[in-house]
Design a protein that fits this description.
Layout (H helix, E strand, L loop, with lengths): L13 H14 L8 H11 L6 H14 L8 H18 L9 E2 L2 E2 L1 H4 L2 H22 L3 H15 L4 H10 L7 H11 L1 H14 L4 H28 L2 H4 L5 H4 L5 H5 L1 H18 L8 H12 L3
Antiparallel strand pairs: 1-2
């Protein structure tokens, strides 16, 4: 439910990226009870090249709350978020959903394997995410809170509900309020959850968690507007997926409602609001600000 990499790399720490990639590889290893094609397809989808924005948000939020020592305990939450994100992409790409054949510059899971395998990959990633959270976050009470938070963000009232409404709105006229409602759930819920999980894993204060969730709300909204703009004016080789699909699928987007320039201005304003939300963290939140500014630059 997000864009693939652009030609400009996001300002992400290489050591943190390596931690995430290693953890994703480890979490996608299965014993002999997992059929070999299913295991291969899971790794194909989860480990495909990508920015890993959501797991980075988890770790950056943890570091902002608890310092560098808070990063490692938050890694299971970062892995779980990326698994949820990857599952949602696999299912969204299916013919019955958004019907895409290219994702992150490669054939989508159902094109590389088959539709049944793609459905099962999504099922496996969804359940594995909660296994990773439940067994990796300590203490157990905190793990339970993390599982609840992520389940709510990924469920019928958030990510899945937003996708359902998005499909129902195809070739129909909807207004700005309805469009915002769809993407507050379809895209924004996982952004907010990423920040909240990082704060929770680091045992951050309530005030810290609230500020980070507000940051995630504004950033997620801006990210979706930019994604819509890239579908109109991006370069397919840079974006890594088919462009112009929103128009072909009859989807209402921010550019179609607001126009390109107003959409760009709105995204810029949201990035400014996101950065303002975390002013209280001072220098500890500078990597989050840089990441937000990168999202804004993608629209230009």
């Amino acid at each position: 439910m997000s864009a693939a990499p652009t030609s400009e790399s996001p300002p992400l720490d290489a050591a943190r990226s390596a931690l995430i990639e290693a953890a994703l590889r480890q979490a996608s290893q299965f014993d002999a009870n997992c059929p070999s094609q299913l295991a291969e397809a899971i790794r194909y989808s989860l480990l495909a090249p990508g920015k890993r924005l959501r797991p980075h948000l988890v770790l950056l939020a943890a570091e902002a709350c608890g310092g560098p020592q808070a990063v490692e305990p938050a890694i299971p939450a970062a892995v779980a978020v990326e698994m949820i994100h990857a599952y949602s992409l696999v299912h969204d790409d299916l013919p019955a959903m958004d019907d895409d054949d290219l994702r992150r510059g490669r054939p989508t899971c159902h094109k590389q394997f088959d539709e049944a395998t793609a459905i099962l990959v999504g099922d496996a990633l969804l359940t594995r995410a909660f296994e990773v959270l439940a067994t990796g976050i300590q203490p157990g009470e905190r793990a339970a809170r993390c599982c609840t938070l992520l389940a709510q963000a990924a469920g019928a009232e958030a990510l899945v509900g937003g996708q359902a409404d998005d499909l129902a709105a195809e070739f129909r006229h909807i207004g700005l309020e309805r469009l915002q409602s769809i993407h507050r759930r379809k895209t924004g819920a996982l952004f907010r959850a990423s920040l909240a999980l990082g704060a929770l894993a680091a045992d951050g204060s309530g005030e810290q968690g609230q500020a980070l969730v507000l940051f995630g709300e504004k950033l997620g909204h801006a990210f979706q507007i930019v994604d819509d703009l890239l579908d109109v004016s991006g370069a397919e080789a840079n974006v890594g997926k088919r462009l112009g699909k929103d128009r072909r699928r009859g989807k209402v987007t921010y550019p179609s409602l607001l126009g390109v320039e107003t959409s760009r201005r709105t995204a810029s304003e949201l990035i400014d609001q996101a950065c303002q939300a975390i002013e209280s963290f001072g220098a500890a939140a500078q990597p989050l600000r840089e990441l937000a500014e990168f999202v804004g630059r993608r629209s230009r």
